[in-house]
Design brief:
It contains two helices and no strands. It is an all-alpha fold. The longest helix has 34 residues. The chain is flat, with a radius of gyration of 19 Å. The N and C termini lie far apart (58 Å).
Length: 90
């Protein structure tokens, strides 16, 4: 059907991962880390594991608002970091 597995390979007892398997895991981790930070922020900082709405439109709105809040939080982080680096250079 044209689908590829994006699940990490794991090593088993007495059998290490091959070099191609390790490289494939690293490539998968790059994408996975970007996505999982958003969900981790929802759970740890916004206190939400479940979207409790009725209807797909409301659920999509909740997800969009959470993503917006996360993006604002990241923007503030990067602005503070840039300001801190400017002050160190001067």
């Amino acid at each position: 059907m044209g689908f590829t597995s994006e699940i990490h390979e794991r090593k088993y007892r007495n059998q290490e991962l091959t070099e191609p398997q390790e490289q494939a895991n690293q490539e998968r981790s790059k994408i996975r880390a970007k996505v999982e930070h958003n969900f981790g922020s929802w759970v740890n900082e916004m206190g939400e594991k479940v979207i409790e709405t009725i209807g797909i439109v409301r659920a999509e709105t909740v997800i969009e608002l959470r993503n917006l809040a996360y993006n604002f939080k990241r923007y503030i982080f990067w602005e503070k970091r840039a300001l801190h680096q400017e002050l160190q250079v001067v």
